[in-house]
TrEMBL record:
Ranges for domain Ras-GAP: 301-511
Gene field: RASA4B
Organism of this sequence: Trichechus manatus latirostris (Florida manatee)
Lineage: Eukaryota, Metazoa, Chordata, Craniata, Vertebrata
Molecular function GO terms recorded: GTPase activator activity; zinc ion binding
Region called Disordered, residue ranges: 734-756
CDD domains: C2A_Rasal1_RasA4, RasGAP_RASA4
Keyword presence, Protease: no
Origin: domain of life: Eukaryota
Protein keywords: GTPase activation, Metal-binding, Repeat, Zinc, Zinc-finger
Name of the protein described by the UniProt record: Ras GTPase-activating protein 4B isoform X2
Amino acid sequence: MAKRSSLSIRIVEGKNLPAKDITGSSDPYCIVKVDNEPIIRTATVWKTLCPFWGEEYKVHLPPTFHSVAFYVMDEDALSRDDVIGKVCLTRDTLAAYPKGFSGWAHLTEVDPDEEVQGEIHLRLEVLPGTGTRRLRCSVLEARDLAPKDWNGASDPFVRVHYNGRTQETSIVKKSCYPRWNETFEFELEEGAGEALCVEAWDWDLVSRNDFLGKVVFNVPGLWAAQQEEGWFRLQPDKPKSWLDEGNLGSLQLEVWLRDETVLPSGCYQPLVQLLCREVKLGTQGPGQLIALIEANTSTECRQEVATNLLKLFLGQGLAKDFLDLLFQLELGRTSEANTLFRSNSLASKSMESFLKVAGMRYLHGILGPIIDRVFEEKKYVELDPSKVEVKDVGCSGLHRPQTKAEVVEQSAQTLRSHLGALLSALSRSVRACPAVVRATFRQLFRRVCERFPSAQHENVPFIAVTSFLCLRFLSPAIMAPKLFHLRERHADARTSRTLLLLAKAVQNVGNMDTPASRAKEAWMEPLQSTVCQGVAQLKDFITKLVDIEEKEELDLQQALSLQAPLVKEGPLFIHRTKGKGPLMSSSFKKLHFSLTTEALSFAKTPTSKSMNELNQWLSALRKVSINNTGLLGSYHPGIFRGDKWSCCHQKDKTDVGCDKTRSRVTLQEWNDPLDHDLEAQLIYRHLLGMEATLREKHRELRGATEASTVLEGPGPAPEDGLAQLFQVLEDLKKAHSSSPAAGPPLEHRNLLELQT
């Protein structure tokens, strides 16, 4: 049994930000920190005071986390980036919004006295005596203190205040992991109500000392405890509220905290087996559970439910069968071919998730070079005459302004080149497409052919495939390459327009160049010849794509199963130190790493394009080591140089690490290893929410069955899938109720500690 916490984060936009550049504007981006650990950095939006990001993330983190902070920064090319402001949401604040926090939050000033981090190790004792008792405070060590000096460290010392007296430890130079092992004693008067305050400071020779955080203790409560020892989180001096209105602008956020108690795998087996049986039986199943789940799932949570179900069936090897069942259900209620898979049904949402989970690397191989070329060229492209800006394109070789017609023709040539390259790459990619994706498209193609067999619908099976491949996969990735990890940054206005026009052209090809799509935007006519050629290319590609036999599918899947799943790949810089003393030099060597669930390997040359964010690498490493029984609880963040560790100054090379291993804050990615128990728990939670509706539906179905029995006579009783589902839900309820008390577990914290 385990507690799981996750944060769904959407950073929408900012408004009324202050100008940080001499141009009267800013180049804002956001950094997200969980308990002072940076985990997310958004793209930079250039030259604006009202940036729009629209970036979404999901973070898995320990239930013991304290806060999540959003820092809005201004990027500077020549100097250190400026801090504009921040929004800090504590765990308690997020827990007060069961359906998630959504709205505008005022940015507050980043006060150095608030930017504290780390923990301090203390031992508190009440010493008995014949007369007055004494309070002993042992300051042992600290870890992960905020670096306040230019050298990336601090010179920390501790002040202990009680009953008007102040005592200080010695100063530990150049360390964020100091060890003091010093003890102080104070006279303790019975009935005294004053608190004990322990403050950490960074010593500075010239300027004033920097505040590193404090812990305040309730001394009267210590009389009963007599002794307490542990690690205590350092708190800010005077925290500000994001509700206070200031002049630093606002940030629109959507943040949803979810806590789940995940039971042992055996508890979920009846639910998983019941759902798998329904999928295997298909439309002939007696209970039609999948159809009932689809009918009673709201639009707001349909994407989440679709993703959870898809991942569950992927883990059971039934993703293709699950999607095939959804295809049949939607085809059964569709009468007009032109409306097929156009709504946000469970089939459409599940297929979207499936393509991202199973086909993201395939997408990168096709689109990566084309997207890179668009970003590098930065050409002005516009086909709509009403939007052409001649001044933006400069002069021709004859030193005269170009006409709108010339601009449109040049733009059409650029788009024809990009579209042609994309279609050629797609045509060559049949063998590169994952076998499970090809097999799923084969099922879709066959089902649509069976439903619309007439000659007038000969294009409908192709359009059904392209409605997912082009309209819901390729086109969104072209328009927003940052969100599909194709680029590190958002495109500027000029590049965004080029990508939008290219995506429109891909949509027209995907729609098989129907008269309706052609009439919608007549100014796309310059691309008509390329679109017509693209339709023929795409139909030929789909014909080859769905031409995969069962044996070939099994062979490809078996070959893939022998390979360890790839978690992440991309370049990293290896730091190399040479020499000793003042002649010591350092250099960086670029190597391309590949991380699977079994090994971390590297080579001198890249095998594919990938992102190179440090926090993504840390997240990937944590995911593959989550079940490592030999994972260390602590480590040294520094290096052993000369005769001591650079982080904590300990002289024993085998000394226990001075910082704790942070192994549980991870970013969710589409290629994450499947967590079967968590997906089953999330599905159970969703079914629990619709249990009352399902019971009402069960009564209706049972009444109809009894009426049919009276008319037709008794026969063999059909297997009641809904009744079995209700029994499974009851068993899971009992399992949860017998588990430890609901609510996230708190890390060990002294009850004497006062929260500031």
